[in-house]
């Protein structure tokens, strides 16, 4: 508890509008409205969204054209942001508490518990934000899914601790924050939402149909090597239903290296990474990509994302057509087309064995911290995944769903990137011995009171072992979830000396 309070206090000292954290329940309310293309202001924007953008998008909705279910979603979203809207207008301190209790069952039985506490202060277009998350899970059950081993020491993290300015055309953020760039449901090929917060400098510029975003972050050092990550994204609103984005990013590392201006400036990242004076294939690893989101019908969303790791042109030995440095993601989602409240979605992710790998080794791979956090998609290289999901809203405050997911991993699926790609570029995805993991999940969730949600999940997992290895793994999946998210204002006036709730 002492460590928890110290993290909260020190973070709040150094943190200035405010972004809605990726764990905020507002995203569950916005997703169906976005799928129906009712919030065009948010098209193509990276997550987390600025609270001001969400508020303006909700206020711009034409209520006369909304269905009763759309109107309910709009009102619920406005209600969940009421305290923040009040805080912005009155320059007050906002305290948010996100409590989660998760339980699971297996052969031995275990439980998971996570807590988070956040503080926000807004003044005009400036915000100070600090959020501390605590994992109270027994050390016995703290499993690192990316490294595929148990971790014993990670207790608390600070996913958000930053100062920000949000203007109409320009914005700036400095500090620690979690981000997600890309339209995918299961994640993103470069900046997904599964990794911990990045210590970063980020900014944006908006001019009509063009929006630009840039981010530079400090990754954990490995030995004497300092490691940094820079990325830029240009979002082009081609039509009210069609958004295109161009992306570039780089991981660079080396003894005594620091933030380098030509990598911080968004227009120079790819140029200097490929054609500049830095020695190639040793200390810098460049990525380029694009993503698109199209909403041809109200309630239908089609999207894709593409990523190239240095544009390797060597052909693989299996299909003789796929570049080993290529990854892509394809997906579609429908909302309220067949029935009100019915959501259907499917997504396919393919990541070749060379993606996220580099002849420079671990220092220029996509690891962000030594606890196993990574950039990129959570399934890692030399893998592919297909997900099919269905969910139905029941009554006003409950929903049920079903998901099937197949993940195929080759023997080069090393999430840490500890693989020297030199002279191995003919190996394709999924390569060699393939492990197939089938997940069947049934989910249910209901909201009993403002911010209080009760959820449950039951399913079955079947893992087919790689070729030439005996045995198969089968297990049931049962878990429960109780979350409570609420905001409270701490207000004061000239005569008050305390901060009453």
Index terms:
501 residues; disordered C terminus; 18-stranded antiparallel barrel; disordered N terminus; two-stranded antiparallel sheet; Porin; mainly beta
Structure report:
The chain is mainly beta. It has 7 helices and 20 strands. The chain has helices at residues 2-13, 26-35, 51-59, 68-80, 82-90, 261-264, 269-275; strands spanning 93-105, 110-123, 126-135, 143-144, 149-150, 156-166, 170-177, 198-207, 210-222, 225-239, 242-255, 284-297, 300-309, 326-335, 342-351, 383-394, 398-409, 435-449, 452-464, 472-490. A hairpin with a 2-residue loop joins β18 (435-449) and β19.
Radius of gyration: 23 Å
The number of strands is: 20
Regions with pLDDT < 50 over 5+ consecutive residues?
1-16, 105-110, 313-323, 417-428, 490-501
Average pLDDT level: 73
Shape assignment: globular
Beta fraction: over 45%
**CATH-scheme architecture:** Beta Barrel
Q: What structural class do helix, strand and pairing data support?
A: mainly beta
Question: Could you give me the name of the CATH homologous superfamily?
Answer: Capsule assembly protein Wzi
The termini sit apart by: 23 Å
* Fold-level CATH name: Porin
CATH class: Mainly Beta
